[in-house]
Amino acid sequence: MAESLNGMKRTKLCGEFRLSDVGKTVTATGFVAKYRNLGSIQFVDLRDRSGILQLSFSEADHPEVFAKSTAIRNEFVLAVRGTIAPRGEKNVNPNLPTGEIELIVEELRILSEADTTPFHIVDDCKANEQLRLKYRYLDLRRPYLQHRLIVRDQIVRTTAEYMAKQGFLNIETPFLGKSTPEGARDYLVPSRVKQGAFYALPQSPQLYKQLLMIAGFDRYYQIAKCFRDEDLRANRQPEFTQIDIEMSYVEDIADVMKVAEGLIREIFKKTIGLDLPKRFRRLKYSEAMERFGSDKPDTRFGLELQDVSKIVKGCGFSVFDNAARKKGFSVRGINAKGMAKFTRKEVDALQDVVKEYGAKGLAYISLKPDGISSPIAKFFSEERFRALIDAMGGETGDLLLFVADRDKTVFDALGALRLAVARKEGLIDESTYDILWVTHFPLYEYDEEEKRLVAMHHPFTSPLTEDLKYLKDKPLKVRAKAYDLVINGQEAGGGSIRIHSAELQETMFDRIGLTEKDIKERFGFFVEAFRYGVPPHGGLAFGLDRLVMLLTGTDNIKDVIAFPKNQAAACLMSDAPGEVEDKQLIELGLPVPQK
Amino acid sequence: MAESLNGMKRTKLCGEFRLSDVGKTVTATGFVAKYRNLGSIQFVDLRDRSGILQLSFSEADHPEVFAKSTAIRNEFVLAVRGTIAPRGEKNVNPNLPTGEIELIVEELRILSEADTTPFHIVDDCKANEQLRLKYRYLDLRRPYLQHRLIVRDQIVRTTAEYMAKQGFLNIETPFLGKSTPEGARDYLVPSRVKQGAFYALPQSPQLYKQLLMIAGFDRYYQIAKCFRDEDLRANRQPEFTQIDIEMSYVEDIADVMKVAEGLIREIFKKTIGLDLPKRFRRLKYSEAMERFGSDKPDTRFGLELQDVSKIVKGCGFSVFDNAARKKGFSVRGINAKGMAKFTRKEVDALQDVVKEYGAKGLAYISLKPDGISSPIAKFFSEERFRALIDAMGGETGDLLLFVADRDKTVFDALGALRLAVARKEGLIDESTYDILWVTHFPLYEYDEEEKRLVAMHHPFTSPLTEDLKYLKDKPLKVRAKAYDLVINGQEAGGGSIRIHSAELQETMFDRIGLTEKDIKERFGFFVEAFRYGVPPHGGLAFGLDRLVMLLTGTDNIKDVIAFPKNQAAACLMSDAPGEVEDKQLIELGLPVPQK
Q1: Global confidence as pTM
Q2: Does residue B7 sit at the A interface (CB-CB below 8 Å)?
Q3: A431 to chain B nearest CA, in Å?
Q4: Lowest mean pLDDT across A137-141, A189-193, B11-15, B235-239
């Protein structure tokens, strides 16, 4: 049976004891991470969120306490009192902050016993993820996960401090809102009071934060939980968290970017001690696509795209020639420097990468030291083939890779190919952070499936002032006052200056094919709000989960969330979602399943 | 058409300008709160969340700007540049922090025009609440509401700072959880991936926060949104916010109360500058009930309850006599000092109060200066009647009020009566804060409807160590390690030391009538967690909405929430809950209504 603390209060956390504590009588509490019984002496590693403290039980000095200590097993919860002593020289552990000392235990209380855990609680735990998710509370004891949630707390704290200093108010927006199905799928909540009606959980607080600006709150932020009922890819969770920001009296994208840069600088400084530049690099969307084939480019390595359409136009290779001639199509390539060494099998694997992004194939020219290997060479005149190689800066040892297709496909395929080659060859310096803004996004893109324009960001994004003239006739030419923050090739956040005129907002809705009825039903109250005075405003949102992942170096979003869902949006620990009682369904007017 | 800011950046917020700014060229932005055209001069009150700045447009000095300014109407959004000047002595407004100065406008930009608003945006707005909820973004412009959300932000900020200083980590717990229908009604979220299954929105993060202790996070807090699908009384909202706290290695209620006291002190200091005592008063539950008839007593006034059962036992008045004899029943009274002046009608109104709480009637003795008036006098011997008056400390001019019933009914009725009389007679000093803890709650109470014991707080509450001996045979005698913080007669928060032994937790579930199957289905994973080492832990939660209400002096919870719901749990602004598309229902496997 568990013992009680009986008034024992810990002196400090386990990981905080140091040589300077030697000789002091102290109290510590924690979980047993490890125990070693050496016959007349027993060592125990006591663990809490701060680290490990070595306890030493000596039969000679404290026979009764020693005897009691032999019952100790892993994950028991202890409170101990004793004296801090230096470790013998040969026992010093230089890898532990507390490695120079130990606690000679004079009083032991076993606060809680523990069965053998389903897996061993160490950082290099080999248990499969399903088991660890089922016993999440045990997995969370691992320093690896504790660290990530501690950094998450630091980021949230730093955000609150910084935003307050900048005059932003933390304001909560509702979770039970209205479904406005432009975007991802909503999670719905049936109403009991008004049967047949539903609330929707927010995909983002977008409308509310703009309404807060219309309400005169001037500067708002929130650590906002958002929801999307999507089929989960890796690194997606049905509920995720944004650092959500909105401010009034801004018109230029730089006004918002400046606040965002300050916040990100502060977060990097506080969590990993890294000083970022005062202003981050900026790249226009068109340049990001042309050079990196991506609107979230990783610029820590080269392998930039090159447009060779002009050179291949009129060549005998019809795939290239057609793409070079057609509007909205192109032929582009990457020079994989020194990678002519790739085997046929390795090149085939690259074919798979581009095909995943819709390209029909990958053409290549392998400039092997013993001669050029290229299935497309035969379609070219020698002169033009040379010109193509030269245009790509091709030298002996290089592998030139080409895709010819619709621009979007070319960019997507080569952008992905670029990353695949860099990862394969270890070209990415993972020790650095590559931070930049992508700006000047198109306001619209054409949705092939729905055969209509859609807003590339969202329909509240303001067009660039200088592009307003194209809004009527050449909407695809209109660029947006939008900006994405890209860190190491990942979208860390994004936002825009918003439309603040009712007229322009209605034009925007009209262009994306919303009828007046649609607008009224979905956004009626929002559009009406524009009639009563709207300060110019803008904002952005950072993905908090993503930020924590970037700052703690993990690719797994589950590592940064205390109680995550699996790919089927289920919690393996609590078994949610689950069955509910018939009574609950009846009260909601929902059908009760036959049993 | 709206003008652009064109690079204008405000110098500071409207309410921040002072005499020390006189002579400076400054820029200000805001909404037009008021305008007065005096012919050749126009005054405009420019409003932002910080206050009001008077703008002055002079035809003589800046004829073009003046001409433009005549178009200004209420709620237009402006940016202005000009010079700060002192107001003429007779125009000084001592009620405004900016009342000594004005801005002589040299450049005016009308950033947004505004139609006439559906109601006038002033603090003494007379529009009905429905209209104001529909145009919530306009209502929120009123300084009254802005102030309340600004204080809310201060409280959240202070909490984050204080909790971090005390070593608490901010950790987010899931919104999509499992329904555990012990308590209020859950909001359910249908699962698309697993049709027929549901998530539940959290009523509180109780299980998760305890699991975080089991996971070794040691100290946790969260500003947690919680959900209850209840029929809304005034001052209830379907979604509400808790300051949620949990800590490990605590056993004594004082360990948690100390942290809570520190937080509340800090919040009062930072928001209203009030110094609270280091330790708050404590009152045991039994004493709170006996003296005030309430477990959340307002002790800013007297009118305490007195038990007269012993005195009336055996009197001729059977209602009193029976109640005095029966176990669990009693006769108690309040001496409403000096209130013999109450008319018959006023006393009848008091009858209604006690009846609302289930009492069958209110007996009284009115010690009027011209003689005693009491319908119950005839049942008493003169001697016993005198003894009853004496026991109540009755003097000429007093009104003695009695209820005889089951104890619970007596307490509820007299507790409510006490408040009603105090409010009616203005006995409550609203300028002070009355803060105290109520402790030593019963662990269980008997639920008459369900004919079983239920946990008075929740089934994770630890019994008092000294009462463990009653757990088996006299469970109603067992008191809990629970504590509520009561401010001005309102429950501001509450919590407990938790059970941390699997054995005791199972006993607890058993006593409240959960079968092993129930336990396994609802709390299986939680009970299992107790097998792997559990630190003793405890915590509490404050109602954030309630705290803001108390600190800003409002009785209306809607005043402290940006976008509240009405009594039908609907948002009149966005019209949530609403209809959704058939496609959405089909994807969720929900029936599509016939149209």
Answers
A1: 0.96
A2: yes
A3: 28
A4: B235-239
